[in-house]
Amino acid sequence: MELKGEPFMSAPAVLDISQRSAHRIASDEEALQLAQRLAADFAPDAARRDRERILPWAELESFSQSGLWGITVPREFGGAGVSHVTLAEVIATISAADGSLAQIPQNHYYALEVLRVGGSEAQKRFFYGLALDGVRFGNALAEIGHKDYQRRTRLTPEGKGYRVSGQKFYCTGALYAQWIPTLVVDDNQDSYLAFIPRHSDGVEITDDWDGFGQRVTGSGSVSFKQVWVEPEWIVPFKASFDRPTSIGPFAQLLHCAIDSGQARGAYQETLHYVREHARPWIDAGVDKASRDPLLLERVGNVQVRLRAADALLHRAGRVLDALQQQAFPDARSVAEASVAVAEAKVLTTEVALLAGNQLFELSGTSATLGDRNLDRYWRNARVHTLHDPVRWKFFAVGNYVLNDVLPPRHGAL
Question: Single GO molecular-function term (predicted)?
């Protein structure tokens, strides 16, 4: 499909961005410091937000206005252009405080990466500028009701622009966003990412996410009924996977970071609870749970696995940093990045589930009381880690190292 229109960008009248004035982060160090500060602010009410399903509007405004949602914008466009190691650590830091909050900007960062790889210079200037001003991008990528993984949300030409019609689900962040990057297909089944203003006529967002974890991510449904889209709001998507690019491993790195943070949060909660509340087992012969030898063995086990997961997470970030430095990545370098991230995803998944489970095994029955809501760590990890199965990560890694078969290029590996 040949996109029509003039090479300029303009904001729709329905989007008021005149009051957006987010902080501009200048360095990796500043991004990490701000993430730690926000995590300290977000943590105290995380249990209540999850238990009562209180949507985090105020927290999200602080989050996006802090400038952290713009840290991946390249320096040539006014951003900090932080490393992937820093990006992963920022997400993990927030996730340790509140796993739901950490997932909400995931697809915002993803959209910016799709833009970096496939957008025009004019599109980059416009949408990067919005991100730096604190504007939030959500997502409308996935569709349910079909088993063939084919997208059915249509992009249809009309006059000097296009219309979008379709139904999406698992739309994390769309509820809170000013723009909704939407995966659409044309009559040739070529796919594009259409950036659609949240308040456009024909856009309907339904807060119908009722999963037992990640309760306040806003991962519900979005309906598009003949929604008008300007040509300059449309970025190639399929073309960015037809050739070797960083989009796939980048997307997976974000998932790894969320899981790593959830593991950290559960582990820190375990240490606190054991020190302050847990009782030693009667046969341990000690006066404090923190001196129970079998409990100490379990704590050490989680510690080692968490350290290993974080080491692989940071290694994957460094591999992605090197990949992004290549003007034209080849299939081999993208495969190496995908495998590195897949290795990290295996361990971050496993340790997130392990830490959430060990929190109860080591803390005892009193930790299950409803007012504490400590089960949110396991629930959040269990739901989020279902995004893409770890068994296929093992397969991809094994097939690569043994048979030199490059893994497929898509956002779920």
Answer: flavin adenine dinucleotide binding
Tokens of 123: 């599109």
pLDDT tens-place string over residues 175-187: 999 999 999 999 9
Q: How far apart are CA 413 and CA 409, in angstroms?
A: 7
The parent domain of residue 39 ranges over 28-133
User: Taking a C-beta distance cutoff of 8 angstroms, is the pair 393, 341 a contact?
Assistant: no
Q: Is residue 13 part of a domain?
A: no
What 3-state DSSP class applies to 25? coil
Is residue 66 a part of any domain in this protein?
yes
Residue burial 67-81, b: 16+ Cβ < 10 Å; e: rest: bbbbbbbeeebebbb
Are 182 and 153 in contact by the 8 Å Cβ rule? The answer is yes
Dump pLDDT digits (tens) for 317-329.
Answer: 999 999 999 989 9
- Note the pLDDT tens digit of each residue in 224-255: 999 999 999 999 998 888 999 999 999 999 99
Question: Does the global pTM surpass 0.90?
Answer: yes
Looking up tokens 């105020």 gives: 58
